[in-house]
Structures are given as C-alpha cells and as structure tokens.
C-alpha cells in the first residue's frame, strides 16, 4: 500500500510539473540605449510591442522614454508599436526602456476559420518570399516525391522534413539573416529567418496559407539573464485543423526534438510581430520593413539605416 501511494505521488507530481511547465510567467525588458541624431530634422523611432492573444497575455507594462510618444498599430496584421518623436531643431539623445510581465503558454494547433482576406494575405508573395517561382520547382519536385499523398497535411509535413534535412543552421559570412528565400535555395544555410522564409514560400506555392512570426527566445534553463538576439517561427493553416505551429530552424539545431517542433511552440519565446514587408509610416510605404523586431528609425521622414544599441533581458516569475 505504501508503494502504491508512493507511485501515485510520483505520478501526480510529474503530471503537475508538466502542467506547470505549459505556462510561464516572466518579465521581459526591451531597452534602447541613447542614440545621437541630426538635430535639424524630426526623428521618429518605432519600437515593436508584444502581441496579445490567447497564447500570450501581457499582464503589466512599464516604460520610460526620453521623448514623448504614442502607441499605434499597423493596418495589415495589427502589429502594435510605440512611436517616439523628437521634434526638429531639438538637440538631445533618445533612449527608452519597456518592461512587460508576460504570461506565455505552449502553443499547439488552434482551431478556427480563415477569412478569405486572411487566406489571400497568407498566400501572397513578399519581396523575399516568392510564390510559384522557378527557383522553388526542383525542391517542390523532391517534396512531392517524398510526401505520403498529395493532401495539404502530407505536403506541409514533407516541406518541414525537407528543410530540416537539407538546410543547415549556421551564421557564416554575409547574406544570411534576411529571411531571403533565394539565399536559402542557393546556399542551403542560414538562420531562423532564412529557414522560415523558405517554408513560407514553399507552403504558399502549394496553396497552404502560412504566416511569419518573430520575437525573442526566453531561456528555460536559467531564471534570468541577457538575451542576445531574436528568434522567428511559422504557423500554417489547414482546414479543419486550424493554425499549426512549426519551428524548422530549432528542429535543425536539435534533431532529437524534430517531432516536438512540428505542431508545437514551447513557452520559450515572446512574440512581438507578425508578417513581412510591414508599413508603419508614409516613408515605409516605399521601403517596407523586411520584418519588425529591432527599432525602426526615420529622420526627416526618411528611413535612417542605423543599428541602435539595444539590450534585452528577462526574469522568470512565479506562475502563481
């Protein structure tokens, strides 16, 4: 009887640990360090704000900026951002710090319908994500040969497997990191943006709606610390199943987790924006943002190509 009680206790403890791990609560800080800009023109800085949905709730927001600003959102995907403005002929550095308390859950397939507008949006090409382009044809032929049947479900899985098996995760030289499908097809290596640009291009070319999401990784193996850079991932849509999450670049880095990353996004990330070729202002209509994770700067209404110094950090909080 004592043995049975002990076994039951262990089982209950394990089940509770798994359940607790499915939701995380952490504090995430996004800091833009002081930058110097020409003082004769107005300066605008656009900073992405976290997505709020059933997968990610923002429980608390604290922020400080050296110049006034306002919260806005872009029209296509509803991405929220904070626009800081320094008027013309004002001399002074611009810096900001945002801190959010986030509750993030493990993401699996989410049932739901897809409007015709959304369907068309997530089947359309982007500047670096072609649809139906001849450069994709040889890869599509290999995917068609390896899939179990011609269903959308089997095709999506074959696309994922082909990419994990044939694209290497590495950051060598220049050209990677732009989410460039043409680069991924020719060089067969890159970071998460290149992996997922290729997945989206192939999926859309097969008539499968797919959307690009980007944010930051939040480590699970330590209670706090700095975060060095962004991470991105994808969800694709299947009728009757809804949006299916995948992370092909993490699967390539961790082959033992290939099955996990097809159909699951662990609670190890914070989602900041969705989509490519984003328009935040009049100026960005002619030069859309490739993706939106770091601050976007405009001086005198013209995009200013500068990498502001940034710092990102997190602190794990008690889920209770």
From TrEMBL:
Keywords: Signal
Pfam family, any one: Transglut_core
Signal peptide range: 1-19
Entry superkingdom: Bacteria
Transglutaminase-like domain boundaries: 184-250
SUPFAM superfamilies membership: Cysteine proteinases
PANTHER family tied to this protein: TRANSGLUTAMINASE DOMAIN PROTEIN (PTHR38339), TRANSGLUTAMINASE-LIKE DOMAIN-CONTAINING PROTEIN (PTHR38339:SF1)
Protein name as catalogued: Transglutaminase domain-containing protein
Organism: Seongchinamella unica
Upper lineage: Bacteria, Pseudomonadati, Pseudomonadota, Gammaproteobacteria, Cellvibrionales
